[in-house]
Design brief:
By secondary structure, the protein is mainly β. 0% of the residues lie in helices and 45% in strands. The protein has no helices and 11 strands. The strands form 3 sheets. The chain has a 4-stranded antiparallel β-sheet with strand order 4-5-6-7, with no helix packed on it. It has a 4-stranded antiparallel β-sheet with strand order 8-9-10-11, with no helix packed on it. A 3-stranded antiparallel β-sheet has the order 1-2-3, with no helix packed on it. The protein is globular, with a radius of gyration of 14 Å. The N and C termini lie far apart (31 Å).
Length: 120
């Protein structure tokens, strides 16, 4: 899997190197590495400095088992669970995002529902 500076995540076959899928529009000033959890791919990124509502395309969960028109299905997008610099971490069905304000967001991977938020 490759994340480009142009906001694209591309998956390649480990068998022959052919492109399996690509998703565009991963926006942000920094993009931590995507994290896998079974069939899910968690993509986190810091918000663009001058973003307005509707512009942010990162901080989402993709279902790698559901490819539609050459792209994995977006299961959910986080509105406040933002990874500023660190990649998302997963454990026991939950994803953890840490923002630059030192807030830990615990999100259910399958549903996108926030289990809790805690200032560190």
């Amino acid at each position: 899997m490759v994340v480009s500076s142009g906001g694209t995540v591309t998956a390649y076959s480990s068998a022959d190197g052919s492109q399996e899928w690509q998703i565009d529009g991963i926006e942000g000033n920094s993009v931590p590495s995507p994290t896998t959890a079974g069939r899910f791919l968690l993509v986190g990124a810091r918000l663009p400095e001058f973003a307005t509502d509707g512009q942010v395309q990162a901080n989402c969960c993709l279902d790698l088992s559901t490819i539609i028109d050459g792209k994995p299905a977006v299961i959910w997008r986080a509105d406040k669970a933002i990874c500023d610099y660190a990649s998302p971490v997963t454990s026991n069905g939950y994803a953890y995002f840490v923002s630059k304000a030192s807030v830990l967001h615990c999100v259910d991977i399958a549903s996108g529902e926030v289990a809790y938020r805690k200032r560190l």
